[in-house]
Every structure is written in structure tokens, then in C-alpha cells.
Amino acid sequence: MGNWVVNHWLAVLCLVAWLGLNVFLFVHTFLKYEKDDKYYYTREILGTALAVARASAFCLNFNSMLILIPVCRNLLSFLRGSFCSRTLRKSLDHNLTFHKLVAYMICIFTAIHIIAHLFNFERYSRSHHVTTITLASVLSSLHHDKEGGFWLNPIASPDMTVLYVTFTTIAGLSGVIITIALILMVTSSMEFIRRHYFELFWYTHHLFIIYMVCLWIHGLGGIVRSQTEKSMNESHPHKCAQSFEKWDDHDPDCKEPQFEGHPPESWKWTLAPFALYIFERFLLRFYRSQQKVVITKVVMHPSKVLELQMKKRGFSMEVGQYIFVNCPSISFLEWHPFTLTSAPEEDFFSIHIRAAGDWTENLIRVFEQQNSLIPRIEVDGPFGTASEDVFQYEVAVLVGAGIGVTPFASILKSIWFKLQHSDHKLKTQKIYFYWICRETGAFAWFKDLLTSLEQEMEESGKVGFLNYRLFLTGWNSNIAGHVALNFDKATDILTGLKQKTFFGRPMWDNEFSTIATTHPKSVVGVFLCGPLTLAKSLRKCCHQYSSLDPRKVQFYFNQENF
């Protein structure tokens, strides 16, 4: 844990600052509404629930301001590619984690806000039904029969129900819509739905526009009210609250108090980040989508993997980056992220697409059925990821699971070019590459690259530069028997490579122990594109095998996150 904090101190600092600001805003706003004299009469009806509702509302505004910033991908890519240190870049790699944390905090404060207002409306209603004359009952009946809107209780009469107020006022109706939109966005963001029903996640997440608009108008009804400044000067509650029964006698020293609602404040918090996100998410994407993309080559690989090689004027990339792809013939609105599998040194850019949902299956089907007419593709990006930093490490460990190998295709291709041209600026001295697949067909499209790398390393005298291992997790007795019969051959029977395929999963403790022993004073970057369970194992090993002495071996964990 200590090593993790050292490697991620900026992310920890940001997290602590964010939590601290939430606590400060809540406490500061709570005390304001609990102590301020202009809310004296409002508290007389609502009690502490007033302060709780307002404090949670302020925290909701604060987190709604932050929720879109971590997904402003162009901004993050600009920061990554400009003046960022490794520490700051690693913090930026946690953007989606922070986005989720902010979303959870919004859910928590929404629940608090709703519960507090349920108490508030119950007390507003109850104040009309008391059998004796109390200060709360007098306040509830004030000014409802007069012009000027100086009332305090939004429930105007004993016959008006809480349900009626909820669905006939701007504050009530917008609050219901906000809550429904939030529930739909959060539930459709679950890991299972994102992986198996991405389109559902994609469309429901755009309810954030409705969420934001309703948040801006939520305060228009002026449900939460305070005594006006003029009324405070004429009838201060400390002087007049106890003589409420004489307010009707037109006492010049204690007139009936008058109240006013708050103007909407949420837009002040959220308008700037919302405008930034809309600019880069829609306007900038629309501009980029109009730039022509030429598909130069289409390849159908085994295991239903489609490779598209493309060209686009002015397109510039780095290793490990990704793009968003849209196919208008399938859907005008859906954009899906794909890691670039080409190297920056190549004169085209490429992606590999595995059938993993309705949209990808439809895309593969469209290209399989194409005759002479190739469907139009629109591209937005590229955007930066953790893999961009791979050449900043002396030793790199690359771990891909299934189609998660795609960012490392770009890296390995770039290494092949660097070896060909004897790039002396290459800082990386050793690469360990692990690819874990369920079926043998998945290895097919990648083995040509590995074969080329094997040959290039032999010719350049750098046989030990790349140490790669392929692991097959799904096999049957026929495959195992076939491999056993051909075990003594020079090349692997499944892939045709010199390196033999392993059956099962890597023993990560053994792998990390060997790397730490082999490179006792190196900085090792560990890069993963794969599932969370694998990420937990690798992160644990990075902590466990990093030396407490900063001069000795240090493992830095990096995960693809988009």
C-alpha cells in the first residue's frame, strides 16, 4: 500500500482534496442554513431537514460540475501530450475511476436530498393540520391570498397534497426527472451491461443532457425560501417571532414577515464544464467526422476479427492510442472506441474489431457482405492512454487478454521499426509480452508480427530484447494430444512460432520474481489491457515485488482505461 501511495501520490492528493471539499461544502452550507436569521421562520416549520437538504444540494452542484471533466478526452489527451510529468500522466489515467466516484457521490447526495425534502414536505403539510394556533401554522397561511409571492409554505392549503405539489411545480417535476435519469444512467453503467449491451449503456448515458437541463431549472420554483431583507429590517424574528398572534393587528413594530425564493444556482456551477464537453463531444467530433476516411484494406481474420486499414489527412498518432469509430450505415449516433493496432511509423492507421455486441456484429456483417461499395467510416481521435508511456521505462511488461492485445500490436510494430532503423534514442532495453487467449484462432492474426520480430531481432543481434509468452486457457484433449505428439519440433504446432504455447494461466508471482531478480535496479512499467480480475492480480504483484529502496527495482502498474 505504501508503494502504491508513493507511485500515485498526486491521485491520492486529488482524491483527498475532493473528499475534503465535499465535507467542507456540506458542513459550511449546513451551518449557514442552521444559523442564519433569515431562515429562522423556515426552520420553525422544517427544522434541521432544511439545512440537510440545502447542504446536499450544494454538494450535488459541486459534483455535477466535476462529473464531465474526466471524460473530456481531448482535454486529457492535450494534457498528456504537453508538459505532464509521469506522475501527472498516471493520475490522468484514473480519469474514468474518478468519473465513477463522482457519480457515486452524486447518487449519495441525491438520496440525502430526496429524504430531507420528504421530511420537509411532510412538515409543510402537517403545519396546516394542527388543531392549535402555532407559529408554524400562522407562517404556513401567510400571503397565499395576496399578490407578490411572499408566502413561505408551498403547500397553500390543507386540501393540497404533497403528490400534487410534486408533479405540478417546476422544482418537484424536475426533481422527479433528475432522479429517474440518474437511476437509468447508473444502472445501465454496470459492468455486465456495458460489456454485453453496450448500446443500452451508450444511449441511456446521454440522459445526462436531460439531467443537466433539469438541474438548471430545479430552483426556478423557489421552494426553499428566506425572509426578505426589507422584512428583516422591519420585523426581525428575534424581536417578533414570539408575538406572532399580534401580526394581524398591524403592529408597526412587528409586521407580517415576507419571504422570497432563491434564484437557480446550479447553472453557475455546471455551465462551463457542460459547454466544454458539448464542444468537444459534439462540435469537435462533428468537424472531425466530416474529414474523409479512406479504407485502404479490409482483412477478415479467424475468430471473427475484422481488420481495417485506413488513411485520413492530417492524422497523427502515438503507440497505444485509440479512436472512436462511427459507421453511419449502421447508426448515425453510436461511436465506439477501438485501440489503434498500427505503428506511428506506418503510412496508415488500423484497428482490429472483434464481434462483441450488436454494433460490432453488424459492422463485421456489413464488411463481409460488401461487394464493390465499401461502407463509409467516420473517425474521431486519436486519444491518449497509459500505453503511450511504454518507451519511458527501461523494462516493459505487456499483458493482453484476448482482443486486449491490440494496444501492444502498435507497440511491438513500433519496436520492429525502431530495431530496423537502429533507433539509439530507444530507452527500453527489455520487453516481456504475455498474451492470454481462450482459443487458438485468436493467435492467427498476430503471429505474423511476432514472426517478423523474431527474425528482426536475430538479424540485429538483439535476440533477448523481446521475451514473449502465449497462454491458451481453452483447449480440449485433441489439442493437447496433438501438441504432445509434436512437442520436439522446432516451432510451435499451434502458432508456427519458435516460442511454445503454454496451457493455462501465467503464475504471476513466479514471473514477477524472475523479472525483479533479472533487473534488480530497473524501473519496470507493467501495462495491461484486460479484465479487472487480472488487473487486481497484477497490481498486487507490482506492490509486492517493488523494493522499498527507491534505487532498486520498482514496478509501475498501468491499465488501459477508455
TrEMBL record:
InterPro entries documented for this protein: Cyt_b245_heavy_chain, FAD-bd_8, FAD-bd_FR_type, Fe3_Rdtase_TM_dom, Fe_red_NAD-bd_6, FNR_nucleotide-bd, RBOH/FRE, Riboflavin_synthase-like_b-brl
- What CDD domains does this protein's entry cite? NOX_Duox_like_FAD_NADP (cd06186)
Gene Ontology MF: a single term: superoxide-generating NAD(P)H oxidase activity
Superkingdom to which the source organism belongs: Eukaryota
Which organism's genome codes for this protein? Urocitellus parryii (Arctic ground squirrel)
Query: What catalytic activity does the UniProt entry give for this protein?
Result: NADPH + 2 O2 = 2 superoxide + NADP(+) + H(+)
Q: Where in the cell is it found?
A: Cell membrane
This protein is called NADPH oxidase 1
Q: Which GO terms describe its biological process?
A: angiogenesis; cell migration; cellular response to hyperoxia; defense response; extracellular matrix organization; hydrogen peroxide metabolic process; intrinsic apoptotic signaling pathway in response to oxidative stress; JNK cascade
Which keywords does the record carry? Cell membrane, Glycoprotein, Heme, Iron, Membrane, Metal-binding, Oxidoreductase, Transmembrane, Transmembrane helix
Q: Which PROSITE patterns match?
A: FAD_FR
Any coiled-coil regions, as ranges: none
